[in-house]
Design brief:
Elements lengths: L1 E5 L4 H12 L3 E5 L9 H11 L3 E4 L6 H6 L1 H22 L2 E7 L22 H16 L3 E6 L2 E2 L12 H12 L1 E4 L4 E2 L2 E2 H12 L5 E4 L6 E2 H11 L5 E4 L20 H5 L8 H10 L5
Parallel strand pairs: 1-2, 1-3, 3-4, 4-5, 5-10, 6-9, 7-12
Antiparallel strand pairs: 8-11
Helix pairs in contact: 1-7, 2-4, 4-5, 6-8
Amino acid sequence: MKIAVIGANGQLGSDAVTAFTANGDEVFPLTHSDIELQDTASVVACLEKMRPQIVVNTAAMHHVEDCEKEPQKAFAVNGLGTRNLALVARDVGATLVHVSTDYVFDGVKGSPYEESDVPNPLNVYGNTKLCGEHFVRSTLEQHFVLRTSAIYGRKPCRAKGGLNFIELMLKLARERGEVRVVDSEFITPTSTAELSRQIVALSRSHSYGLYHATAEGSCSWHDFAREVFALTSTKVSLKVAGPNDFPVKVPRPKYSVLENRGLKTRELNIFKPWQDGVREYLSSPVRL
């Protein structure tokens, strides 16, 4: 099949290109120089010429603090830009796979969120991503909206300083010998390689709709760091960060664990426990 991957030079996009290529698809990696979601004419020109059967959108303005500072820009990219893409995908007859976030929830539930739970974002980023979801779901029938959590991959994430959480922990351990990490925020670390394989599998179905798509299980950021250090036999003093160690500039959900209820109901879930994804990542011969 002919696949267009938007945001192909990003952390998730690069692995999506790899996964679809490994599946034998004809993949067109698209970056900012190829398509600008805020510009309807750019989206039309790119997709009408290419006419892909599946469009995978991994592009977003996802630096939480930048979104808070520039809400109009965040809405233009994550909301209206997604609408532009949905409209053009519909017109060219393509299926749209759109990646969203656990930040559409406020974290007060305290147990894994399912697709049927009502979103209540705490910040601009979450609100704009939820807006993008609504535009996709109301614009074209052939869509998959995937909410995911705490992703990490081999490709540097430019919006977050380049280093993913695993590499940051290992860097701090080498340089300082002591690392402090919060134990009050709960997530599900999700490998972009595994998420990309799930996207490929889901794209072959006709079970369109909204899905939660994360690795299995959950942990605190402190637990995540401890697992990384254990798997790499890193000698480090790992401590719990105090309430004032890392002042929060933008409100975030304390608990944003997602349950892959939709995938499991349709027997489409291929995710493994989050620890397996960390092991796979660490065993990769090429990392950051």
